[in-house]
Design brief:
alpha+beta; Dbl Homology Domain, Chain A; PH-domain like
Length: 538
């Protein structure tokens, strides 16, 4: 094969030069006699007198890639074909723009042409550039591993060593119990159930660590170089680090001593030894309240980012294919905490089912009750949070409070401080754990006194009935009658199957106001009367 003589000397600059220099460009090439002028294949020569690289020819016609090229450079050439960029020798960090109508230029850090481009073209340039850089970064992560983050990030996110990394466990409980062959079938089933509790705990924590050691670490590293800055890691992963810390403490102080006792004694695993830990279950796993309150928002945020953010979608795909992920999808990982916390009663019930001893059964019953009590607490918090969100959404649909018409500007000025209705305020006569709820809403016609019928829109809340008038321009409803408190309300059906009477009483149990409500149908009337009665009863 014919060799190539070195062309005129000129410095290699920019990204390609740094890659050649890093991955093999500094090796001194072996040469033949000056008369031959041949260079070893793929090895650029460093001129000792000028300390510069001559132009480097990476490919020979009809040959494969040069040995002097790094894997990263080969990847860069693949990405050049994919994204239309150019990474060959040239100006520092140059990018040739292709496939853009009427445009073929090279951009360098020294001279930026972005302000001179049409806005849609400039946006496309930025997208191509970021996509190209993301591909390079992810390829670098695959080749050389994830860069080490600052200590404060590693500590907050529980990234790296710690947790389950140093925990080893036998393949079976039989390795710990020499006399397992003499045990009854029921005792063996009990040990299997206890062993499942231990092993699934470690498997679960390892899955949590995928979110921190791979996904969060990768996202934070990309953000350090200006990529995916619009994605919030804390919104995406919630308080997963807090869950990891909770499980680590539970393992170190409850499950590991339980396991070590059997290792030391050779006796079967005793469920009674777990009693103290599970009786205080809610104290160990308090971070689950916060996570379960936010899991719907977390899942929605992850879906939105993957649907609308192409770079984030590319990053998540890379993570899901990474050997560290164990083929776990992001959505599956985010729902794991909710699934795990609800699985503990089932694991303990499996042990109870195989435990005939009265003392063990009594201890397991108490443990199951403690875990289920904590789950009910979580469910209550989640329900209250959902009700609060629904109330906020309903309150945002209700606008001005205009129940009186002022006779003058002076009167209006004095009325103005009292013309507000705060639906977010606590309900009277109940504890703070009860949240006002929107029970029913809909259009009706009302008649007050001898006046004609008026088209209105009713909102029935847990403690109040609001009469409003929709406002099309602002897409809100203004309150046109004083709030009717349900505890002072009397509803009576009328002869007309579509109508009922609403009577509002004073503290002296006499009429304050009365409305005849005409519903679109008899079914609607029955629904309004039923929901109102249920709200009053509760």
């Amino acid at each position: 094969m014919q060799g190539f003589s070195p062309p005129d000397e000129s410095p290699l600059q920019g990204l390609v030069a740094s890659r050649i220099e890093t991955y093999g460009g500094r090796r001194q090439a072996s040469t033949q006699s000056p008369a031959g002028g041949l260079y070893s294949r793929g090895s650029p020569v460093l001129d000792p007198s000028r300390r510069r690289f001559p132009h480097y020819v990476p490919f020979v016609k009809g040959s494969g890639p040069s040995r002097g090229l790094s894997p990263l450079m080969l990847r860069e050439q693949e990405l050049e074909k994919k994204h239309g960029g150019h990474l060959g020798p040239g100006p520092p960090h140059s990018l040739k723009l292709k496939n853009l109508p009427g445009l073929t230029v090279s951009l360098t850090p020294a001279v930026s042409l972005t302000p001179l481009l049409p806005s849609h073209t400039a946006d496309k340039v930025k997208e191509v550039t970021k996509a190209h850089e993301l591909e390079l970064r992810l390829h670098t992560f695959s080749m050389f591993g994830m860069p080490r983050l600052p200590p404060e990030d590693r500590q907050y996110w529980e990234i790296g060593e710690g947790g389950d990394s140093g925990v080893t466990i036998e393949k079976s409980w039989r390795e710990l119990v020499p006399g397992h062959k003499e045990m009854s079938r029921e005792q063996c089933h009990q040990q299997e159930a206890l062993w499942e509790l231990l092993t699934t705990e470690l498997i679960y924590v390892r899955k949590l660590k995928i979110m921190t050691d791979l996904l969060a670490a990768g996202l934070l590293n990309l953000q350090r170089v200006g990529l995916l800055m619009e994605v919030s890691a804390k919104t995406l992963f919630g308080n997963v680090p807090g869950l990891i810390r909770a499980h680590r403490r539970f393992w170190e102080e409850v499950l590991e001593p339980f396991l070590e006792e059997t290792r030391a004694s050779g006796q079967p695993l005793d469920p009674i030894r777990l009693q103290n830990g599970f009786l205080t279950f809610g104290q160990w796993f308090q971070p689950y309240v916060q996570y379960c309150l936010r899991v719907k928002q977390i899942m929605a945020y992850a879906r939105e980012q993957q649907d609308t953010n192409l770079l984030f979608h590319t990053f998540v795909q890379w993570c899901e294919k990474h050997k560290r992920s164990g083929r776990q999808m992001l959505g599956d990982l985010l729902i794991k905490p909710h699934q795990r916390i609800t699985k503990y009663p089932l694991l303990l019930q499996a042990v109870l089912k195989r435990s005939p001893e009265a003392q063990a059964r009594e201890a397991l019953d108490a443990m199951i009750a403690a875990v289920e009590s904590f789950l009910r607490h979580i469910n209550g918090q989640v329900r209250q949070g959902e009700e609060q969100e629904s109330l906020v959404a309903a309150a945002q649909r209700i606008g001005n409070y205009e129940v009186l018409e002022a006779s003058s500007e002076e009167v209006e000025k004095n009325l103005r401080p009292f013309c507000t209705l705060d639906l977010m305020s606590p309900m009277l006569g109940v504890g703070p754990e009860h949240t006002r709820q929107l029970l029913l809403e809909g259009p009706v016609r009302v008649k007050e006194g001898r006046e004609g019928k008026l088209d209105v829109y009713l909102f029935l809340f847990s403690d109040v009935l609001l009469v409003t008038k929709p406002q099309r321009k602002v897409d809100k409803a203004k309150v046109i009658r004083p709030p009717l408190m349900l505890e002072k309300l009397v509803c009576r059906p009328l002869r007309d199957p579509n109508s009922f009477l609403v009577i509002h009483l004073t503290e002296f149990q006499c009429v304050s106001s009365a409305l005849v409500v005409h519903c679109p149908s008899s079914t609607d009337r029955a629904r309004w009367l039923e929901k109102t009665q249920q709200a009053q009863d509760s």
